[in-house]
Design goal:
Blueprint lengths: L2 E7 L2 E6 L4 E4 L14 H23 L3 E13 L7 E13 L3 H15 L1 H6 L4 E10 L2
Parallel strand pairs: 5-6
Antiparallel strand pairs: 1-2, 2-3, 4-5
Helix pairs in contact: 1-2
């Protein structure tokens, strides 16, 4: 896996993935940026949410669950001193579908957290990573 990062100006950077996609990252105006993109540490959280959600959807579909939507809200805390690593990360999953069983969703989330999601497992080496969920039945 490869990524290339190119400095654009001030504190703006264009990140390019090996799979051919680009993301502009920027800083806040008070830090010399123009707020044209997410901060690098926000990208870390987005990656963790994406990795975990991918797993959960995959596991549920493999189990023939009729999952229709999944949203993950992530909240994190960082250390007050440098390096300002994440100290706490909480993922709240909202899973929608027809006839979804709470146990099925819980199992998928736990498998992701404990076995499959490389991003959250890696972050758990320095941060307390927790999760919870809600299941919403749709017609």
């Amino acid at each position: 896996m490869k990524v290339r990062l190119k400095w654009v100006e001030d504190v703006s950077f264009l990140a390019q993935s090996g799979s051919g996609h680009s993301v502009l990252m920027d800083g806040p105006p008070e830090g010399g940026g123009k707020n044209h993109g997410p901060r690098p540490m926000e990208m870390v959280l987005m990656g963790a949410a994406g990795c975990s959600t991918y797993d959960v959807i995959h596991i549920l579909k493999k189990g023939r669950a009729d999952v229709r939507d999944c949203v993950v809200d992530v909240e994190a805390e960082r250390a007050e001193t440098e390096p300002k690593v994440f100290t706490k990360i909480h993922l709240h999953f909202t899973v929608k579908g027809k006839g979804l069983k709470t146990e099925q969703v819980e199992r998928a989330i736990n498998l992701s957290a404990e076995k499959y999601c490389s991003a959250t497992i890696m972050l758990a080496k320095t941060a307390e990573v927790t999760h919870d969920f809600e299941v919403i039945e749709i017609e």
